[in-house]
Amino acid sequence: MKRVTKVTGIVIGVGAAVAAVAWMLRDRIARPPRVAAPQPVPAFRVAPPAAPARSDADDLALIRGIGPVFKARLATAGISRFDELAAADAGRLAEVAGVPEGRAAEWIDQARSLV
Questions:
Q1: Residue spans per domain, the chain
Q2: Is the dihedral of CA 52, 58, 61, 66 positive or negative?
Q3: The predicted structure's pLDDT at residue 48
Q4: Confidence (pLDDT) at 52
Q5: Are 97 and 75 in contact (CB under 8 A)?
Q6: pTM over 0.70
Q7: Nearest-CA neighbor of 101 among 109, 89, 90?
Q8: Four-CA torsion 39, 41, 46, 49, nearest 10 degrees
Q9: Which residues are CB-contacts of 114 (< 8 A; sequence separation ≥ 6)?
Q10: Which residue ranges in the chain fall short of pLDDT 70?
Q11: How far apart are the C-alpha atoms of 20 and 17, rounded to whole Å?
Q12: Measured between alpha carbons, how far is 45 from 112 in angstroms, rounded to an integer?
């Protein structure tokens, strides 16, 4: 009988120790898995390729006041021919080229005379 009591005491003590360790480690044992935050879509620093230059483009540099810089700005906006420049709105053209509306209106008048 003493032996059964002794063994029972040991089993209960070991069980209590295991329960105490499990209680201390409960956060590590029963922690839900961490879900990584979704990675943001990378933003490319490279501009998209420019539209290929049209082969039927007019030389906009023939218009007084349009040099290589303004010619490139107009090409970026899709204006590479005299008829496109003549049909453009002065306000939109001034915004695209970064010039006053008066200058844009002069360009449009010159393009209309060349068409």
A1: 1-29, 60-114
A2: negative
A3: 62
A4: 60
A5: no
A6: no
A7: 90
A8: 150
A9: 58, 62, 63, 82, 86
A10: 1, 4, 27, 29-33, 44, 46-55
A11: 5
A12: 39
Contact assessment for residue 96 and residue 73, using Cβ atoms and an 8 Å cutoff: yes
Residue entry with tokens 């023939």: 62
What length is written for the chain? 115
**Can you give the pLDDT at residue 35?**
75
Dist CA 58 CA 26 (whole Å): 77
CATH of span 60-114: 1.10.150
Cα–Cα distance, 29 to 50 (Å, whole number): 56
The 10s digit of each residue's pLDDT in 30-59 is 666 677 788 877 776 766 666 665 567 788
